[in-house]
Design a protein that fits this description.
The complex is a heterodimer of chains A (about 260) and B (about 400). With about 260 residues, chain A is mainly α. Helix content of chain A is about 85%, strand content about 0%. Chain A has one domain: Up-down Bundle (Methane Monooxygenase Hydroxylase, Chain G, domain 1). The two termini of chain A are about 40 Å apart. Chain B has about 400 residues and is an alpha+beta fold.
Chain lengths: ~260, ~400
């Protein structure tokens, strides 16, 4: 009976953690339109709200992380449950960092306060924002549904954001060359493009963590396996038995991690 | 006002839920609970409980009920927040859970039962929304709980904002030219140098014209806002588009913008007010020219399809930020202050267009990418053409 209760308590804690990580994700997604509004309109009230909002995000992040470690320590979860908890603690870091990037966007907006962006830059910036927002949303969907294929697709979906990053930098150079914006603004805008682009990378990371949660495997494992047992170049001439052993080992460690 | 009504309704529903839940989950009664039960017995009836549960399912207000440990017991369909994405719903749910925890804690500390906890939740979305979350303790002792009512106050907030900016704008817009006229006239009476007099006179004239434009547009707006099609006659779409474009040929030439018109089939007949429709198209083309660079093109297309005609005005201009697309039809709304200085319109054009379109039972929409251009699209129904008026083809200007 006591064990049952203990188990129920554990499931409740897991459910709360899941609900809170989605809430954290939702709050981080909210920072994207907020930070973008600061960038495009220079609204200082929204900027201040965003900084307060980021404090709430930090608070929730710390809280989730602490609770994750407590569950790990007290409930001794195993296998998929442990992977889930590890994933939550990694997701918190990716999400929290993404919110910081949007705070950076609004800080960049403050540094170039008063200088007028060209319509082209504004257009690319808002496209980058909605693309970054979409990616984070997908990554959270992949987590909530434990959707491995959506998680794996995020890397490809991120290509669009990478292209927009290139467009943005081009638009910034063009605007600077034509004398529309000064060097300070140009540098800040190039950084802004980078911040949005990084949010996309965090979404891809979340996708990889979700893959790990579901399958126990991550793309990084492929690289790690290469380090553990480097590919063997077959010697010319009659094959020695030692080389064969090595190749076997390499394929072994691969199938293990898969 | 509506918030208050919402709250009253919410409290009523909340009280209803208490009856309803207690009916569904009979529990051993403590003496205090027994007393309360006797008090409410007269108000309770199976019929009432059914009405409450039915209306909870149908009502727009989100209603949620939580148990004494903060566990969710009930949530009506509006409480699923279907218009938001899942992450946004998670944010709203988080705020609700915080409210519930707050109420449970306060109740434990002995707060009065009627103490309501209210918090506002701003959602940037999309969709952008403003919500108020109100949480109320159902009763102190076990098995108490919390009722949460979430009100969507997005519309109210937007209307408030529109009203505030309208009042501020209309006084500013009217005062500026009047102030300029007064100062210019005063300087004019005191000056004797003919070149100065000429210069001041020209500026006086400009300010007066601007004021005249503004009053003309306000009158036009109030005429179209009255919501009736003043003269519904048979008219040719090509003819009012042609009139609108030719009225602007001079400003298009000055701006170095080419305006091309393409109507297929060449003659589309519809019922409507030629003067209003001409002014709508003219406002759209005028904007397109203003916000386009020299050497670019403005395309006006009209095509009949089935029982409607679609008129599009597309430019390659500076575009409109996505966040502003919803607000551009408001009187005096400007995307930013700089545009006003550069183009000097009255800020009423798109309001007029929208009213003309709705007077004709049509729909207006806009697509825009900043830096690439804007396309306005008007869809108007092609009602049966009655044979009464041959004057249609000669659009009345």
């Amino acid at each position: 009976m006591d064990g049952m209760q203990h188990r129920r308590e554990y499931h409740r804690q897991m459910d709360d953690l899941k609900a809170d990580i989605l809430r954290l994700g939702g709050m981080v997604i909210e920072t994207i339109p907020r930070g973008t509004e600061v960038l495009l309109t220079g609204d200082l009230k929204v900027a201040k709200d965003l900084i307060d909002y980021d404090d709430q995000i930090d608070h929730l992040s710390v809280d989730i992380e602490d609770r994750t470690y407590l569950v790990m320590a007290r409930q001794a979860p195993a296998a998929s449950e442990l992977r889930h908890l590890v994933t939550i603690s990694k997701l918190v870091a990716e999400l929290e960092r993404s919110a910081d990037l949007m705070v950076n966007v609004s800080k960049a907006a403050r540094r170039m306060y008063g200088s007028e962006m060209t319509p082209r830059i504004r257009g690319v910036a808002s496209s980058m924002a909605s693309e970054a927002q979409k990616l984070l949303q997908y990554s959270l969907d992949a987590y909530a549904d434990a959707d491995e294929s959506l998680a794996a697709a995020l890397d490809d979906i991120d290509d669009k954001l990478d292209e927009l990053n290139v467009d943005m930098v081009e638009a910034v150079f063009a605007a600077h060359t034509d004398g529309h914006i000064d060097l300070q603004a140009a540098v800040q805008l190039a950084l802004v493009a980078r911040y949005y682009e990084r949010i996309g990378d965090h979404a891809v990371n979340i996708g990889q963590r979700v893959t790990y949660m579901v399958t126990g495997w991550m793309p990084e494992h492929a690289g790690a396996a290469r380090v553990e047992s480097p590919p063997v170049i077959p010697p010319i001439g009659p094959t020695s038995s030692g080389a064969e052993e090595n190749t076997e080992q390499a394929s072994d460690s691969k199938s293990e991690s898969a | 006002m509506e918030v208050v009504v919402g709250l009253v309704v919410g409290l009523f529903i909340g009280a209803g839920i208490v009856f309803w839940i207690r009916r569904r989950q009979p529990e051993p009664l403590s003496s205090a609970a027994e007393q309360r039960r006797r008090m409410t017995d007269s108000a309770r009836s199976p019929a009432l409980a059914d009405v409450v549960s039915d209306s909870l399912e149908a009502v727009d207000l989100a209603v949620l009920v939580f148990g004494s440990q903060g566990e969710e017991i009930y949530r009506n369909p509006a409480g699923q927040f279907p218009r938001f994405t899942r992450p946004t719903r998670a944010v709203i749910d988080g705020e609700i859970r915080d409210s519930v925890a707050e109420v449970l804690q306060a109740t434990k500390a002995g707060a009065a039962l009627s103490t309501a906890f209210e918090r506002e939740v701003d959602i940037y979305g999309p969709p952008r929304a403003a919500l108020t979350v109100r949480a109320l303790a159902i009763q102190h002792d076990d098995p108490g709980g919390v009722v949460v009512i979430v009100n969507d106050v997005t519309k109210e907030r937007q209307l408030d904002e529109v009203r505030r900016s309208f009042v501020a704008n209309v006084s500013h817009e009217l005062r500026t030219p009047v102030g300029a006229i007064a100062v210019l006239a005063e300087t004019l009476t005191a000056s004797e140098d003919p070149t100065v007099i000429k210069k001041l006179g020209t500026r006086l004239q400009e300010a007066a014209l601007r004021l005249g434009d503004m009053i003309e547009d306000l009158l036009e707006l109030s005429r179209t806002e009255s919501g009736t099609v003043v003269k519904a006659v048979n008219i040719d779409v090509a003819s009012f588009i042609g009139d609108a474009v030719s009225n602007l040929s001079e400003s298009a030439a000055t701006a170095g913008v080419a305006v091309t018109v393409n109507v297929t089939p060449p003659s589309i007949l519809m019922r409507g007010d030629a003067r209003q429709l001409r002014s709508a198209v003219q406002n759209l083309v005028d904007n397109a020219i203003k916000y386009s660079g020299s050497g670019s093109e403005v395309r006006v297309d009209a095509a009949a399809e089935g029982d409607k005609v679609t008129i599009t005005v597309a430019d390659e201009g500076i575009g409109i930020p996505e966040s502003a697309l919803e607000r551009i039809y408001e009187r005096f709304y400007r995307v930013d202050g700089a545009r006003r200085r550069q183009t000097g319109g009255t800020g009423l054009g798109l309001s007029i267009v929208r009213h003309v379109v709705s007077n004709h039972d049509g729909v207006i929409s806009a697509d825009s990418v900043e830096g690439e251009g804007t396309t306005f699209r008007i869809e108007l129904p092609l009602a049966d053409i009655s044979a009464d008026s041959p004057e249609g083809n000669a659009a009345v200007v």
